[in-house]
């Protein structure tokens, strides 16, 4: 073929088709060759420094001693160091002092989120929004008080507000009258409120007493039902709350966590709930 090459002097391979379509043997462009050799050098360098070439009993380890798990652990150590610093500080501080420090309270809220999810969300909802039978703890309306000290007590010791059953003490008509007055937001306008001693627990103004956890009856915040509040209020008046002598009584028990969670965990949760609901 080379003998009768119709394009002598040209750097072709001698492969010619259709009379003049031929394969040239030019060198690859310079930039391409540089990139080619550089990538080979890079691979050699990489193989020396990092774990890479598989063998029968594992793989080459590389002179840097890099491992994936090592890098992960280093990252973890960094997190632990930051955490450790915060945790050490928290131990010696009261919940109130934590709240006064913005950085510490953000850390506490972040780290108590899991505790809240594990221990509280089943009853109070993931965001503390409550539900029928379980009070909202993400607003500033409190049965027992929303100062961070009271929240710590509530979580550590539990709560169980008691209202006696009035099934035998009130006629249906009297229950209706009381319920109607309460629903209108003005319970004290109903004389039965005084004569049947509701005021003894709910206060002469009907606004409740936090020492007893007796609900504020003037604020239209209800905690036992989502629908038909009038019927729900009637049921509560008639059968009371946590009164074991009446099987129809409302059941409202906040379990105590003092024997399940550490003091520090309870402190964190109090800060968390305080930040959810806020205020007194
Ligand atoms: C088994 C259900 C249940 C669980 C779990 C539970 N609670 Fe409660 N919680 C209640 C009930 C019911 C009440 C109302 C008690 C009452 O009316 O006397 C309550 C009341 C409260 C109150 C008082 C609200 C107020 O208005 O004063 C706070 C604060 C509170 N819970 C926080 C928590 C936290 C924090 C956790 C998790 C550590 C938790 N609860 C876990 C059922 C629960
Ligand atoms: C011994 C104290 C006590 C007496 C007396 C009492 N209550 Fe209560 N009442 C409570 C407590 C405590 C609660 C709140 C229970 C809870 O939320 O855990 C409550 C809750 C209620 C509720 C429900 C509020 C809500 O948010 O759903 C109504 C309504 C109510 N009481 C009306 C009355 C009326 C009317 C009388 C008088 C006939 C009365 N109570 C007498 C202690 C009392």
TrEMBL record:
<keyword id="KW-1133">Transmembrane helix</keyword>
<feature type="binding site" description="axial binding residue">
    <location>
        <position position="202"/>
    </location>
    <ligand>
        <name>heme c 2</name>
    </ligand>
</feature>
<dbReference type="InterPro" id="IPR032858">
    <property type="entry name" value="CcoP_N"/>
</dbReference>
<dbReference type="GO" id="GO:1902600">
    <property type="term" value="P:proton transmembrane transport"/>
</dbReference>
<dbReference type="InterPro" id="IPR038414">
    <property type="entry name" value="CcoP_N_sf"/>
</dbReference>
<comment type="pathway">
    <text>Energy metabolism; oxidative phosphorylation.</text>
</comment>
<keyword id="KW-0479">Metal-binding</keyword>
<feature type="binding site" description="covalent">
    <location>
        <position position="201"/>
    </location>
    <ligand>
        <name>heme c 2</name>
    </ligand>
</feature>
<dbReference type="InterPro" id="IPR008168">
    <property type="entry name" value="Cyt_C_IC"/>
</dbReference>
<dbReference type="GO" id="GO:0009055">
    <property type="term" value="F:electron transfer activity"/>
</dbReference>
<keyword id="KW-0812">Transmembrane</keyword>
<keyword id="KW-0375">Hydrogen ion transport</keyword>
<feature type="domain" description="Cytochrome c">
    <location>
        <begin position="107"/>
        <end position="277"/>
    </location>
</feature>
<keyword id="KW-0249">Electron transport</keyword>
<feature type="binding site" description="axial binding residue">
    <location>
        <position position="163"/>
    </location>
    <ligand>
        <name>heme c 2</name>
    </ligand>
</feature>
<feature type="binding site" description="covalent">
    <location>
        <position position="198"/>
    </location>
    <ligand>
        <name>heme c 2</name>
    </ligand>
</feature>
<keyword id="KW-0679">Respiratory chain</keyword>
<comment type="subunit">
    <text>Component of the cbb3-type cytochrome c oxidase.</text>
</comment>
<protein>
    <recommendedName>
        <fullName>Cbb3-type cytochrome c oxidase subunit</fullName>
    </recommendedName>
</protein>
<feature type="binding site" description="axial binding residue">
    <location>
        <position position="124"/>
    </location>
    <ligand>
        <name>heme c 1</name>
    </ligand>
</feature>
<dbReference type="InterPro" id="IPR004678">
    <property type="entry name" value="Cyt_c_oxidase_cbb3_su3"/>
</dbReference>
<keyword id="KW-0408">Iron</keyword>
<dbReference type="InterPro" id="IPR050597">
    <property type="entry name" value="Cytochrome_c_Oxidase_Subunit"/>
</dbReference>
<dbReference type="GO" id="GO:0020037">
    <property type="term" value="F:heme binding"/>
</dbReference>
<comment type="similarity">
    <text>Belongs to the CcoP / FixP family.</text>
</comment>
<feature type="binding site" description="covalent">
    <location>
        <position position="123"/>
    </location>
    <ligand>
        <name>heme c 1</name>
    </ligand>
</feature>
<feature type="transmembrane region" description="Helical">
    <location>
        <begin position="31"/>
        <end position="53"/>
    </location>
</feature>
<dbReference type="GO" id="GO:0005506">
    <property type="term" value="F:iron ion binding"/>
</dbReference>
<comment type="function">
    <text>C-type cytochrome. Part of the cbb3-type cytochrome c oxidase complex.</text>
</comment>
<feature type="binding site" description="covalent">
    <location>
        <position position="120"/>
    </location>
    <ligand>
        <name>heme c 1</name>
    </ligand>
</feature>
<feature type="binding site" description="axial binding residue">
    <location>
        <position position="254"/>
    </location>
    <ligand>
        <name>heme c 1</name>
    </ligand>
</feature>
<dbReference type="InterPro" id="IPR009056">
    <property type="entry name" value="Cyt_c-like_dom"/>
</dbReference>
<keyword id="KW-0997">Cell inner membrane</keyword>
<keyword id="KW-0472">Membrane</keyword>
<dbReference type="GO" id="GO:0005886">
    <property type="term" value="C:plasma membrane"/>
</dbReference>
<dbReference type="GO" id="GO:0006119">
    <property type="term" value="P:oxidative phosphorylation"/>
</dbReference>
<keyword id="KW-0813">Transport</keyword>
<keyword id="KW-0406">Ion transport</keyword>
<keyword id="KW-1003">Cell membrane</keyword>
<dbReference type="GO" id="GO:0016491">
    <property type="term" value="F:oxidoreductase activity"/>
</dbReference>
<keyword id="KW-0349">Heme</keyword>
<dbReference type="Pfam" id="PF14715">
    <property type="entry name" value="FixP_N"/>
</dbReference>
């Amino acid at each position: 073929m080379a003998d009768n090459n119709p394009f002598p002097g040209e750097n072709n391979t001698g492969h010619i088709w259709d009379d003049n379509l031929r394969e040239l043997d030019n060198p690859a462009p310079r930039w391409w060759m540089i990139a080619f050799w550089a990538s080979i050098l890079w691979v050699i360098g990489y193989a020396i420094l990092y774990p890479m070439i598989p063998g029968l009993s594992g793989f080459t380890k590389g002179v840097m001693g890099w491992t994936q798990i090592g890098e992960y652990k280093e990252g973890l150590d960094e997190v632990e160091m930051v955490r450790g610093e915060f945790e050490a500080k928290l131990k010696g501080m009261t919940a109130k002092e934590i709240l006064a420090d913005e950085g510490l309270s953000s850390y506490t809220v972040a780290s108590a989120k899991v505790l809240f999810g594990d221990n509280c969300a089943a009853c109070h909802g993931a965001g503390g929004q409550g539900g029928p039978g379980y009070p909202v703890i993400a607003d500033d309306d409190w049965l027992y008080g929303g100062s961070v000290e009271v929240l710590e007590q509530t979580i550590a010791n539990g709560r169980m507000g008691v209202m006696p059953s009035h099934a035998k003490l009130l006629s249906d008509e009297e229950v209706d009258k009381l319920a109607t007055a309460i629903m209108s937001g003005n319970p004290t306008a109903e004389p039965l409120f005084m004569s049947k001693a509701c005021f003894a627990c709910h206060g002469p103004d009907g606004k409740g007493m936090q020492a007893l956890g007796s609900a504020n009856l003037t604020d239209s915040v209800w905690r036992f039902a989502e629908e038909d509040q009038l019927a729900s209020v009637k049921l509560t008046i008639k059968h009371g709350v946590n009164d074991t002598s009446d099987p129809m009584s409302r059941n409202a028990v906040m379990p105590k966590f003092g024997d399940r969670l550490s003091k520090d965990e309870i402190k964190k949760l109090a800060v968390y709930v305080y930040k959810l609901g806020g205020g007194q």
